[in-house]
Structures
1.
Amino acid sequence: MIALLRGVVAKSAAGYVILDVSGVGYKVYVPVSVVEMLPEDGSPVTLFIQMIVREDDMSLYGFSDETDQRVFELLLSVTGVGPKAGLACLSSMTAQQIAQAVASDDVRSITRIPGIGPKTAGRMVLELKEKMAALGFERVVDRLVETARVRATRDDKAELIDDVTSALMNLGYNKAEASRATDGALAEKNADAGAGAPLPKFADLLRAALNRLTK
């Protein structure tokens, strides 16, 4: 399964780019936003890939970042939405705008996308609301993990608890429930690791605490 291609632009046109990867040309279908950001021919570019395999065809769809690729994947899970309609969605709206329209039941905005009628727009809202919300939540957690201040040697239990509790409060939980989730997750991690084991990493403990809060 091809998930990412890094090469040079051999040719670009409306709706697709041919990417030269070590002498092999891959035709990758892309939304308008990718065509507009492509460098000139012969320049390097990296695309996140969604590969779709059918009985008589294998096609590649490329995106400039993982969020767009993930939203495209979610769009394809909607009844009646195929790759062409998925690309139309991401050509007409950003991934963030699609997520906002779904979250707010904004069927009217979605029907402005070429090829998306009221029935399909309604299914998108119905089938994607929870999935889009989960995707946004994952992105917030990832940013917290990336920007968290973590010591090079994590041997301070109090600091670890404070860091995770603070991160949970930044996500909207109150201090009491954030503290309970952190303490419970740490106790569970310690029980699994056994006596004498090092403290868990910030990211691992944060995700464990979030799992307790979202059950």
2.
Amino acid sequence: MKLPTLSRLWKILRTAVGAVCGLAIVVALLPSKARSQLGLDPCCAMMQIGLNTISGLLRNSVAMPLGSIQQSQQQSANFEQQVVFPMAAISQARNMAVQFQSQFVQMRQLFQLPISSATLPMPQLLEQSLLSANPGAMPQITSNYSTLYGTVMPAANAPQPVRNMVDMTDAEAQAAMKKAVEIDALANLELQAAEQINQQLQTAAPGSSTILEAETAAWLVRANAYTQSAMAELVRVRSIELANSSGQLKFSASHAATLQSTGNQVLQPGVQ
């Protein structure tokens, strides 16, 4: 009910009650002799007139607006229940949320199935770090990688371009491994958030759907950001592969040029 309508009704009631009270006071002040000459007690007659007046005001000025307001409120309630928040659709959505919860549990169980396959001790250590989904295990990846694949060869054992290529390849390989651990940890957080949002949907009021929708959209943006980060790491790995191929061609060309120059010097006349 709107405030202006309530204020107008209150003014009408206040005016009617004031008029009746005024009539009652006037009648009470009349002498008893004057009242006896009327044949009937004028107090009762005037009270009857006042009550009739109030009754008419209530019917015409109060009952009709209240009926219109009640009808408007009923139409608004029907619109909300049938169009905005239909009970059938709400029940169906909650049932779907219950079904999704069981699916989320199955997804988590599948996501946590062991996939480790290494059989030897050193590869097993590195594989455990890679599949741990624990960002705190990243320092172990560096040590386990060096133990398994070795470090950059000494300067006496290889030319500097080859050492640079090996160092960069090892660095990107370790970075990709660490990024994979980070993405696994983020995936676990996303699964937990999805389960929490789904549990809230099962008991959420219809009016809170907008808040849950905004929360879900925020998590979707985060998930897209994590996916883009993983794609960027794949691009870096592929870039290192291409760079290594190019570096090998350049090193082979340089080595061939050196051999050609050395061969020409050896074949020159007078060279002993």
